[in-house]
Amino acid sequence: MFTSIVGNVFGFKALAALRLEDLRIPPAYTKTFQGPPHGIEVERDKFNKYGRPPPLLGCTIKPKLGLSAKNYDRAVYECLRGGLDFTKDDENVNSQPFMPIYKSQAETNEIKGHYLNATAGTCEEMIKRVVFARELGVHIVMHDYLTGRFTANTSLAHYCRDNGLLLHIHRAMHVVIDRQKNHGMHFRVLANALRLSGGDHVHGTVVGKLEGDRSQLWAFRGIFFTQDWVSVPGVLPVASGGIHVWHMPALTEIFGDDSVLQFGGGTLGHPWGNAPGVVANRVALEACVQARNEGRDLAVEGNEIVREACKWSPDLAAACEVWYYK
């Protein structure tokens, strides 16, 4: 598809710059793609994630490199045991232990997930890693779909569907393609292509340290959800990158119920430890969801809602002091 749409035309000497803002895919062509391995409904069924405030909570283990296996194991366990739904390998991590997942599942009576990074130099090696993850009992794996490219991602998505694995998509390298406003392509084009190629989660951000803004996301949502996707399953958006408890009202308002809010340093940077960082995020999320359901305006009253929740949660109060936000 991209060979025809954004092939040689971007290299013509007569063009100073060219940018693809959007594309609409005919339903007949859309039907030729499998799309996400499973989709939103199947994922909620697999993890039994009903009853809590709808957005799921995750954490990227930090630092991205340098932790021993024992310390990595401890960080995963404390985060999942503390109340997170997911933990995640950073995109630079390739192999870490998974036993703390089973321990945290037994102690919380919940199904937990850890995104094993299966990205590799060849499709064959990538499939070997996914097979290994499946043998260990991991429920979800991760792929850098722009560095691994679409054909490799589609092969991985097909394997995940056939073998009951969910596929988390990291968008590393996207700014090389979409950051320039007069050349390249908008991220919504990459997101649409990803949904066709296959992925149950896809990264996107509005607040925090990574590229992205609110107007861009609203435009992306409008295109993403008005496209006729026929039978192609839905994708969970994932918010991550420099986010913390003070961002929770905006994240809850913008991303809605079917989303994953993924804090890295915003969890592990808590002064009292990893588990209190999880509690702080969980309390802030539940306070914001309750306030939204009561009809309060999160855009206007967001900071006040978080401050009110601090009265009942010392963990959240400590987090709010660390990430002071006017």
UniProtKB/TrEMBL annotation:
<keyword id="KW-0120">Carbon dioxide fixation</keyword>
<dbReference type="InterPro" id="IPR036376">
    <property type="entry name" value="RuBisCO_lsu_C_sf"/>
</dbReference>
<keyword id="KW-0934">Plastid</keyword>
<keyword id="KW-1015">Disulfide bond</keyword>
<comment type="similarity">
    <text>Belongs to the RuBisCO large chain family. Type I subfamily.</text>
</comment>
<feature type="domain" description="Ribulose bisphosphate carboxylase large subunit ferrodoxin-like N-terminal">
    <location>
        <begin position="1"/>
        <end position="29"/>
    </location>
</feature>
<dbReference type="InterPro" id="IPR017443">
    <property type="entry name" value="RuBisCO_lsu_fd_N"/>
</dbReference>
<dbReference type="Pfam" id="PF00016">
    <property type="entry name" value="RuBisCO_large"/>
</dbReference>
<keyword id="KW-0601">Photorespiration</keyword>
<dbReference type="InterPro" id="IPR020878">
    <property type="entry name" value="RuBisCo_large_chain_AS"/>
</dbReference>
<dbReference type="InterPro" id="IPR033966">
    <property type="entry name" value="RuBisCO"/>
</dbReference>
<keyword id="KW-0503">Monooxygenase</keyword>
<dbReference type="InterPro" id="IPR000685">
    <property type="entry name" value="RuBisCO_lsu_C"/>
</dbReference>
<dbReference type="GO" id="GO:0019253">
    <property type="term" value="P:reductive pentose-phosphate cycle"/>
</dbReference>
<dbReference type="InterPro" id="IPR036422">
    <property type="entry name" value="RuBisCO_lsu_N_sf"/>
</dbReference>
<protein>
    <recommendedName>
        <fullName>Ribulose bisphosphate carboxylase large chain</fullName>
        <ecNumber>4.1.1.39</ecNumber>
    </recommendedName>
</protein>
<dbReference type="GO" id="GO:0009536">
    <property type="term" value="C:plastid"/>
</dbReference>
<keyword id="KW-0560">Oxidoreductase</keyword>
<keyword id="KW-0602">Photosynthesis</keyword>
<dbReference type="GO" id="GO:0000287">
    <property type="term" value="F:magnesium ion binding"/>
</dbReference>
<dbReference type="GO" id="GO:0016984">
    <property type="term" value="F:ribulose-bisphosphate carboxylase activity"/>
</dbReference>
<dbReference type="GO" id="GO:0004497">
    <property type="term" value="F:monooxygenase activity"/>
</dbReference>
<keyword id="KW-0113">Calvin cycle</keyword>
<dbReference type="Pfam" id="PF02788">
    <property type="entry name" value="RuBisCO_large_N"/>
</dbReference>
<dbReference type="GO" id="GO:0009853">
    <property type="term" value="P:photorespiration"/>
</dbReference>
<keyword id="KW-0460">Magnesium</keyword>
<keyword id="KW-0456">Lyase</keyword>
<keyword id="KW-0479">Metal-binding</keyword>
<feature type="domain" description="Ribulose bisphosphate carboxylase large subunit C-terminal">
    <location>
        <begin position="39"/>
        <end position="323"/>
    </location>
</feature>
